[in-house]
Each structure stands twice: as structure tokens, then as C-alpha cells.
Amino acid sequence: MTDQVDDDLDSAAVTGSSAVGRRGGFPKLRMQAADTGPDFGPFIEAMRTLQDLAVSVDAPDEVYGAALSHAQAMIDLLDPYRAPEGESPAGRVLDLPGRGSLLMVPWQVEYFGPDLVRSRGSFRRYHVGGNNAVHGGVIPLLFDEMFGFTSFMAKRSVSRTGYLHVNYRKVTPIDTPLVVESRVDRIEGRKTFVVAELRDEDGTLLADAEGLMIKLLPGQP
Ligand SMILES: CCCCCCCC/C=C\CCCCCCCC(=O)SCCNC(=O)CCNC(=O)[C@H](O)C(C)(C)COP(=O)(O)OP(=O)(O)OC[C@H]1O[C@@H](n2cnc3c(N)ncnc32)[C@H](O)[C@@H]1OP(=O)(O)O
Questions:
Q1: Does domain 3-215 have CATH number 3.10.129.10?
Q2: Test site for ligand 1: of 17, 146, 153, 160, most ligand atoms within 8 A of the Cβ
Q3: Ligand 1, CB within 6 Å, residue ranges
Q4: Keyword annotations for this protein (predicted)?
Q5: What is the pTM of this model?
Q6: Angle at 33 between CA 28 and CA 37, to 5 degrees
Q7: How far apart are the CA of 214 and the centre of ligand 1, in A?
Q8: Would you give per-residue pLDDT tens digits along the chain (221 residues)?
Q9: How far is CA 91 from CA 27, 106, 133, 188, 219, in A?
């Protein structure tokens, strides 16, 4: 990706305005902030609540049967609208938690600059691994998203994660406001070393991470 395209994408991220660019070795992919109507955000939030319920309810089988009928009706409703990556709004709505993507944890970036990216949010029932602690596979998802954002803001896109090392310092709770901060540690050629810390609102360190983001060469997928 050229610096010029990085600039275009930066302003898209900051202003929510449209920008279309090539993503380095990626095939042409539109990176355009999605312009959604008022129902998209509540729809995604309802889907998140359904995810919480799907992993937590203990219901009679006929209730699962009824829920299945509703789920099938939703599938029938949505299926005709499948769209390629970059055209679906999911992942392209910066003012929604997790950029409006169910894959992402429902956190909201509150500050992003070349020096620092900060995001706040809570994990929820869907993210439980055991005994109300967040699953150890979910926390790297948050860190990877932060590292992608951080390298993007440092104009190091398009990069992919080479490695991501997580230290789990304390059990991470659900339904508790938390904050994560990420920054560039150092740059060596194509390699951007990034670091991040996840804390609760008292400042207690729950997990920290170090990652290597590697700038793609032309043609690399
Ligand atoms: C609204 C509009 C839109 C707005 C946008 C909003 C902004 C938001 C922005 C963003 C948010 C999204 C964030 C998402 C982020 C997700 C990121 C991911 O999860 S990426 C998927 C997981 N990662 C992979 O799939 C990589 C798979 N691996 C590869 O493809 C290759 O390994 C690749 C291309 C990364 C490197 O391969 P080579 O062949 O080009 O390079 P070689 O020579 O192997 O490595 C280069 C250097 O790196 C070192 N290196 C490579 N891997 C290493 C490792 N694991 N550990 C240590 N060093 C390593 C090597 O030793 C070498 O170092 P020496 O240059 O010699 O000093």
C-alpha cells in the first residue's frame, strides 16, 4: 500500500467519509466506511444478545424447536443479501462496537492516533471460557484487532500478524468495563513490533501482549 492510499484510509477512518483504495498486495478491496440506516446497530446488538443466550440458556426442547423456526425465518430473510467482503457493512462501521462485526468483541475505539490506540468495552456471557472468566482464545482476538488498528494508524498497512504473544496476568471478568491500549514499540524494515495492555478501571493489569505485524509485499495475499 502506498503512503497516499494510507492517507486516504486514515481520513476515511477519522471522518467516516468514503475512500477507495488498493490495499498493497491485496486484490482491489473497497475500504469505505459503511453508511447504514438506524436499524443496523440495533440488529447487531440483538444478534450479540442471541449469541449470549445461545451459549447460556437451559430451555425445554420445544423452546429450542421454536427458536430454530425463528432462526430459519431469519436465515431465509437475510440469505438473498449475501455480499462480498468490503460490501457488507459489518466491520466498516467505526462508530459501532466491534466496527459492527459480530466476529469482533463489542468494544469501541475511543482514541486513535499514530502514537496510541485506546479502546473500551466489556466482555459478555458469550465470551466465557470457564468460571465466568473470559476464554483465553478471545483475548488475543481483541489484541489482534488493536494491533491491526495500531499498525494502520502508524501508516504501516497493509500488514499481517506474524506472531502474537499474550501474557494472562489475572482472570479477565465479563460484564466489567475494561480498557486496552496499544502502541508501536519499534519498527525494523517491514516489521512493526507492537505492544498492548488490558486493564480494568482500577488500573489492574489483566493481560498484556506483544505482536509482530509484517508489511505485505506486492502480490502477497
Ligand atoms: C471504515 C473504513 C475502514 C476503516 C479501517 C479502520 C482501521 C482499522 C484497521 C484495522 C483493523 C483490523 C485489524 C485486523 C487485524 C488482523 C490481522 C491479522 O490477523 S492477519 C491474519 C493472521 N496472519 C496471517 O495470516 C499471516 C500469515 N503469514 C504470512 O502471510 C507471511 O508469513 C507474511 C506475509 C506475514 C510474511 O512472509 P514473507 O515471506 O513476506 O516474509 P518473511 O521473510 O517470512 O518475514 C519477514 C521478516 O519477518 C520475520 N518473521 C516472520 N515471521 C516471524 C515470526 N513468526 N516471528 C519472528 N519473526 C518473524 C522474518 O524473520 C523476517 O525478518 P527479517 O526481515 O529477515 O529481519
A1: yes
A2: 160
A3: 12-13, 31, 33, 92, 94, 144-145, 148-149, 152, 160-163, 189-191, 212, 214, 216-217, 220
A4: Apoptosis, Cell membrane, Cell projection, Cytoplasm, Fatty acid metabolism, Hydrolase, Lipid metabolism, Membrane, Transit peptide
A5: 0.90
A6: 130
A7: 4
A8: 233 334 334 333 333 333 334 455 554 445 678 989 999 999 999 999 999 999 999 999 999 999 999 999 999 999 999 999 889 999 999 999 999 999 999 999 999 999 999 999 999 999 999 999 999 999 999 999 999 999 999 999 789 999 999 999 999 999 999 999 999 999 999 999 999 999 999 999 999 999 999 999 999 99
A9: 18, 11, 26, 29, 24
